[in-house]
Amino acid sequence: MKIKQIFKEGLIDNNPVLVQLVGMCSILGVSTSLLNALGMGISVIFVLTLSNIVISLLRNFIPDKVRIPAYVVVIATFVTIVDMGLKAFAPALYNALGLFIPLIVVNCIILARAESFASKNSVGLSIVDGLANGLGYTIVISILAILREFFGAGEFLGMQVFGETIKPIGIIAQAPGAFIVLGIMYAVFNHLKSKNELKKLQGGDN
């Protein structure tokens, strides 16, 4: 499997959020601001990539009957490192992300990549897969956060962008707004993807 193909799978063709529809809890819960989204995205990339490396290295030594518990232990180890690191060096971000940091342990993206990819491929390819899927997740949660922060709170990176005469759409900053905006993103993504696939088919016919 080529590196370019793996990256394309993680970012677009098999995006963990917009295609696989996994990792939704943190996507909806943390996307209230771009800083929170980036913090969660970087944390997921860190845990996903390092977990893939370790699981790929141990794939021939982990008994099949205990592979899932073993994967969870590996993932939990790196989540603990992230949790302690954020608490020590970025307490504001740690408090903002709250419970969603330890919940990375049960994030379906990470466990799915461990089971479906890292346990079957080399370390090099597993690193690429971890980075690609982590970036795919981070891009989606960041775009969602920008839209919610801009239209829901009238802010960008904590700075006001609307004047006093323009009021933000408050519901977008709330929990139901996350569903609405993500649904619109999902529809746009699938429309563009279908349109691109149709062009490829038409090009092949020619």
Q: First CA to last CA: what distance? A: 28 Å
What can be said about the biggest beta sheet? 2 strands, antiparallel
Helix/strand structural class: mainly alpha
* Number of strand elements: 2
Multimeric state: single chain
The value of Rg in angstroms is 19 Å
Helix content: over 70%
Task: Report on this structure.
With 206 residues, the chain is mainly alpha-helical. It has one domain (3-205). 72% of the residues lie in helices and 2% in strands. It has nine helices and two strands, in the order αααααααββαα. It has helices at 3-13, 24-30, 34-57, 67-89, 91-97, 108-118, 123-153, 170-173, 175-205; strands at 155-156, 159-160. The protein has a two-stranded antiparallel sheet. Helix 7 (123-153) crosses helix 9. The protein is flat, with a radius of gyration of 19 Å. The model has no long low-confidence stretch (mean pLDDT 89).
Give a summary of the structure in a few sentences.
This protein is mostly helical and 206 residues long. The chain has 9 helices and 2 strands; from the N terminus they run αααααααββαα.
